[in-house]
Amino acid sequence: MQLALYRYSLPFRQPLVFKGQRLANREGLLVTINGQWGEIAPLPGFSTETLAKAETESLACLAAIKRGEKAMPTLPSVQFGFDCAQRQWPANLPALLPPYPLLQGEPAALMVTLDNIVAGWGALPPTRLKLKVARYAMEEELALINQLATRLPTTKLILDANGGWTREEAQRFCECLSLKQIDYLEEPCAAFADTIAVAEATGVAIALDETLTRGEEWYCHPQLKALVIKPTLIGSLSDCEALVQRARAGNLRVVISSSFESDLGLGLLARLASEWAPSEPPGLDTEHWLTERVTTATGEVVAENLHCLSKMENSA
Ligand SMILES: O=C(O)CCC(=O)C1=CC=C[C@@H](O)[C@@H]1C(=O)O
Ligand SMILES: [Mg+2]
């Protein structure tokens, strides 16, 4: 059995800010077990573990497999990588809908390029579009949303606040929104109770993301519309599947979402999305933020872009 661990560092097209941390490169690990790959890429600001911790645990897991034992990772990113590399993937998966586009950047800069952005879609604007909020002045963000809603009347907007508002701020924002075109608002406040209070006070539909990765308590509510599941951050695929089941039982939409993984990780997430949520456009529009790839168009891993950390073989 062949086992190996590689490290990658892929430049972002422009530096991106994750919960106050500015990143110029996306760094992560790729694990391969008998020709099957997994990705281990904690996202700074969102994951609780560092890449260094993930690397140490990944090497220990590979050593365990080499000794003929079962790998038992505890860190979410490592669980995700090892689960993917050892999973029996279904052979025939349904075709996946295209990911909805993710707009990120300063509202003033986006306003300037809006004509180009809208023209890029031509006669076929996306059914959904995601925009980050709670980052810049509320008036600027609201003006951009208004423009988007006017220019793209058939597109539903997904807004993501990453828990960045107090209850009062979120309420003030939602009161100025025309809710007609809002698909849902992801995580307006850091605490689930505040998010629910905002939904009840303003009528906005909400979705959970960080609440799920933090493993916080939550319950179904008539205004809770979707679970945004980020497998890289949640970790074990059985924990992800449990969330999918819970969503189905509660009549919630499931949106499989990326954490700015490499093209290899995005391919794995696309397969999971077509298995778990085939009729929902996934939140996987992050690849174009990276200027380099780790795989070729046919899916072969390009070793030149990787730094090999360990390569071993066992007799199995
Ligand atoms: O969910 C998506 O549509 C794409 C991924 C995405 O928006 C995010 C990925 C990782 C961190 C954040 O920047 C953001 C999110 O919070 O959902
Ligand atoms: Mg989110």
Can you characterise this structure?
Belongs to the mandelate racemase/muconate lactonizing enzyme family. MenC type 1 subfamily. Mg(2+) binds at residues 160, 186, 209. 35% of the residues lie in helices and 23% in strands. The protein is α/β, with parallel strands linked by helices and 316 residues long. It has two domains: 2-88 and 292-313, Enolase-like, domain 1; 102-285, Enolase-like C-terminal domain (TIM Barrel, Alpha-Beta Barrel). A hairpin with a 2-residue loop joins strand 2 (21-33) and strand 3 (36-40). Helix 3 (107-121) runs parallel beside helix 4 (138-151). The longest helix is centred in the N-terminal third of the chain and has 16 residues, at 51-66. The structure holds ligand 164 and magnesium ion. The ligand O=C(O)CCC(=O)C1=CC=C[C@@H](O)[C@@H]1C(=O)O binds at residues 18, 43, 46, 102, 130, 160, 162, 209, 228, 257-260, 283, 286.
Output the structural class: alpha/beta
Q: Largest beta sheet: what is the strand line-up?
A: 4-5-6-7-8-9-10
Helical region count? 10
At the third CATH level, what is the topology name of the largest domain?
Answer: TIM Barrel
Strand content: 15-25%
Contiguous runs where pLDDT drops below 50 for at least 5 residues: none
Principal-axes geometry comes out as globular
Structure summary, number of beta strands? 11
Element pattern in H and E = EEEHHEHEHEHEHEHEHHEHE
CATH class of the largest domain: Alpha Beta
Biggest sheet record: 7 strands, parallel
Mean pLDDT metric: 95
- Which cofactors or ions or other ligands sit in this model? the ligand O=C(O)CCC(=O)C1=CC=C[C@@H](O)[C@@H]1C(=O)O, magnesium ion
CATH architecture annotation of the largest domain: Alpha-Beta Barrel
